[in-house]
Design a protein that fits this description.
Blueprint: E1 3-7, E2 10-13, E3 18-25, E4 32-39, E5 46-52, E6 57-60, E7 68-72, E8 78-83, E9 92-100, E10 113-114, E11 118-123
Parallel strand pairs: 2-11
Antiparallel strand pairs: 1-3, 3-8, 4-5, 4-9, 5-6, 7-8, 9-10, 9-11
């Protein structure tokens, strides 16, 4: 059974940085895509970034390109989201999700497994 546990959220001032972690277990191989999604109050959940573990290819939403970086540890079982130059509009509950596959995607419906999320609040 795939399990995902997020950590690292918190309160930060605008312009600051945070690193989110997603600890994954239950992957039978590296043929998985792990993504970060976020949902702000009153808004739909949206894709932020994803990475294909097999090919180490990444994908980013336009709103975070150049500010956020997705990466993994050597074992490819912890996925990080490094968030820099944070803005108040980045405030949301951030979720880690995973799906079997080889191509990084931000298509929410592709992801079968979800963590509980971690909150990020950026103050102005």
């Amino acid at each position: 059974e795939v399990q995902l546990v997020e950590s690292g959220g918190g309160l930060v001032q605008a312009g600051g940085s945070l690193i989110l972690s997603c600890a994954a277990s239950g992957f039978a191989s590296d043929d998985y895509v792990v993504g970060w999604f976020r949902q702000a109050p009153g808004k739909e959940r949206e894709g932020v970034s994803s990475i294909s573990l097999s090919y180490n290819k990444t994908k980013y939403a336009d709103s975070v390109k150049g500010r956020f970086t997705i990466s993994t540890d050597n074992a490819k079982r912890t996925v990080y989201l490094s968030m820099n130059r944070l803005r108040p509009e980045d405030t949301a509950h951030y979720y880690c999700a995973a799906t079997w596959g080889l191509v990084a995607t931000l298509w929410l419906r592709e992801f079968r497994h979800w963590g509980q999320g971690t909150p990020v609040t950026v103050s102005s």
